[in-house]
Amino acid sequence: MGTAERLAWQRTPKKTMVVVIAALVTGCSATGQAAPARESTISIGGATVRFDGLGCVRSQSYLSILAGRAGAEVAVMLDTSGVKPEVDWIKLRNVNGLSGDVWRGGVGRARAVRRDGREYVVTGSAYGFSAASPTDLGIPVPFRIDARC
Fold it and tell me: Closest Cα partner for 96 from 125, 132, 64, 134?
């Protein structure tokens, strides 16, 4: 963590962190009830990956979709201010041995679709690497994230 990130972290109100953590624990639902696991799935490299929970956090016009388990993490930031959601960035870390990133206007490619106002489908290919060959950088990491928020 760099100096600027450390300072931003220190200035973050503790109540804000509690609200974000509480939202992650409760899952995607705005009512505080966790969405059923069958409604939210993540596929990386063609294989569906199980996570204990998938959380959605809304802040103004942005929607974060987060999932994690021991040693693995998926994070998605969507800009929902327009008619169609836009992917700002995606971070995949050690999911089935694959890691990769997508940045709007940068590396990788991704597309997000809102299905019924609560369900988001994010698909694309991240710029990344495989734990099996960590020196081979820049491999495409295909993914699909179905999140019911």
Answer: 132
